[in-house]
Amino acid sequence: MSGAATADDRAWGWVDHLVAGGTTPWADWAEAGPPRDRQLPGAQHLEVLRRLNLVRPASPGLAGTVLSTSGAGRGQQDLDLVGVRERAAFGARPVDPAEVSVEELCRIAAGALADLVLAAPSLPAQDPVRTPRPRLRRTRYRLVGDPLLGAAYRRQLVAQGRPPGGRSPRVLLLLTDYASYLADVWSSQARRGNGLGWAGWLDQFVGQSVVPPRVDVLALAELWGRRVGVRRVHPVFGAAEVAKIAGGDVRAPHRLSWAALEAVRETSTALRVAVPEPERRSRIAETLLPWLRAVDDGTLAAPVVPERHHDWVRAEAVRVRDGLLAAGYPVPEGGLDRLLPDLTAPRGEPGDPMNDEQDDGKVLGVMMKALHRGATR
């Protein structure tokens, strides 16, 4: 048997080991397997499968999904295993799978997650028969401001027979501390599969002379003040203040960690080329987000403002607070100082250029758990 064939047999033995749930690194593997008349999976695919097995053994179906996925977005071609192929004159060199970048492993994991999302059954259409709701005294209101809070509160209030709308409504300007407000705007975009990563998104506008409309709280308040009157625009913080004006019983939504939101964003890149936009957003909301909520156990941080942007975020929070006070909007009982953020988080937060590999490792860890969750749905 030729040397090349022996190397191939060793590689196929390792593939079989991983498909069976094994975790031995390639560098420590020596046993041969039956030869195959097909191309070996890429080294990055095999390393993702090995790391999946470190969480718990992957099912045969999940292993097949990982080994066959094309990955998300632009990345490296399938990499050859070192010791199996000689380095070609062109293209990437053969690698030890353990040396593949975590960023590339995330790309493969995101592609596999997208494949599982597409294979999952869509939720059935809503039953057209409506359950009668009790007749409630209608409170005319609208929810504006923080998009993550707005979507959650609106959904809960509609389910309780208290939909927003009506003429001359009281406008609830949903607020939190300004750093969290920014994070919720980015989070809302990431949940829909749009936009840049957290740090890159902030870099677009922090320090600029013009604040984008989506994060300009004062401009939003002024818009509604012109429509309904300043005294009918109510800055509110938290579910209790919302319920006091709109009625009903509302609770704050579950906030995904920064790493889980990055997993959503990267998986969406793979879905973007596979399905039309409306279906992509629907599958993210109905399938991917529930998987991530189930595995996002609260040990990872929410998006944290990088230290280089602290001064701007503090100054913008003060500008918003002072502008709301000067314009004469009703001040909630707890005051408007709640807009001022606590930016005393430790160094090395998500988005720190010195911390990219560690950040990617956290994202990959969430993806590993979500892959297992999706495969056992």
TrEMBL record:
In this chain, the stretch annotated as Disordered covers 337-360
Q: What is this protein called?
A: Uncharacterized protein
Species name: metagenome
